[in-house]
Amino acid sequence: MESNNMGNLLDVLGNKTRRRILVLLTKRPYFVSELSQELGVGQKAVLEHLRILEGAGLIEGRVEKIPRGRPRKYYMIKRGFRMEVLLTPYAFGTEMYEPRKPRQTAEYSRAKDLIKSTEPAEEKISELLAFLHEIEARVDELIMAKQELEEVRLLTETYIENLLRRISMENEREFEALLRRFAPRLPRKILDDLNDF
Questions:
Q1: 4 by DSSP, 3-state: which?
Q2: What is the total count of domains within the chain?
């Protein structure tokens, strides 16, 4: 996701009422009147928050016909994602991860086999929980490795950017030559920061 879109998303999520709406919508779809009652906020204000959340692509509204009375619009979460905000002595950044269809890995196949198995429920649940524990342990390891690599990446990026800034102040012609040579390989963030410099 582009940095300005990420900034807009952070602004959207920076509002407490909108965060409370999202928490409620993780439980089930809600009508405006229900959200208004749960939040203790007027329906007009709730509608404005819903409009902002819908505009950001986080929720969607669907009209439902009811046996008696007018159709009612209810809202639900549109898509799932995980956002990371990274703040270190070297840099500040955000990343967003959206779930994709799982690759047909050995773990995916094993999960499907365990789910489809015809063992007694007690045995099946026990095996699924053991498998889940293995997956969680692996995820924790990968997250730790990612965090360590992220620190190294940010340190390296920051050094490259600072070095180029220093060269630009000392020798503009050398800076321009280096930029022409390395621009295709430089991370987008460094190029953007240097252009803003």
A1: helix
A2: 2
